[in-house]
Amino acid sequence: MGTTQLESVQEPKYWHLKTVLSQALDSEFSVGEILPNERDLAARFGVARATLRQALEQLELEGRLQRRRGVGTTVAPPRVGVSLGTGPHTWPGGPEDAWQPVDCTTAVPPPAVADALETGRDEPVHIVRRSRVSHGRPVAAELLYIPQSSVPELSGIDAPSGAARARAVLRELQRLELERQENAVELGSAGADEAKELDRLPGAPVLVVTTRFVAGGRTAASSVATYRADTCRLTFGDSGGVEIHAGIQQRAS
């Protein structure tokens, strides 16, 4: 990074510094590279360390940087694009699905989920837990709720627990003819369990994408996927699936 003195700037110094740093990230640094320490950066840009920290915190919030204990500040990978397009709909667990199954349990879902599934509030359902990883870091966690009536032949499958059980449930679900899926998106904050899975602090901003899968005129499954808001963005269009966005302009968004 070259030396840039920040004088006579109308906007806050930390905000102008954030812009300068962002440009340097695009031109001088690669994904995963460690930035110089705060003392050196503050000296190069002629600002107080408090101003530098404000700029770094803003860049971290925007998903441009990652700060980890014992490692330092590194350039973050490109954001994950969560596509909510109108293209062909598919069941979870298909060949193009980037989610990884973690485990599967049978339990009573939250009341709101039970209502969405149109099952009794005391009726257990299959709960498949899956994760999404990009560049070696967790970016999303999903809970997929599937009524037992959607996978009636599951009991004959020798997959008692864990990821194998999750894959078995998804295979059975794909036997149904998917009519459509409906997505809803809202901004939320990470609870204790979600924060642990996503390597964030409790209360960190997240994007919650709820998907309703319809088959045979009823809700055959319901998914609640929680994405890190600092590493993910929504995309709209005709393409389906989830794609990784690369390139300087996309990284800077």
Automatic annotation (TrEMBL):
The keyword DNA-binding applies. Gene3D superfamilies: Chorismate lyase-like, Winged helix-like DNA-binding domain superfamily/Winged helix DNA-binding domain. It comes from the Bacteria. One of its GO terms (molecular function) is DNA binding. It holds the Pfam family UTRA. Keywords: DNA-binding, Transcription, Transcription regulation. The keyword Transcription regulation applies. One of its GO terms (biological process) is negative regulation of DNA-templated transcription. Residues 11-78 form the HTH gntR-type domain. This is GntR family transcriptional regulator.
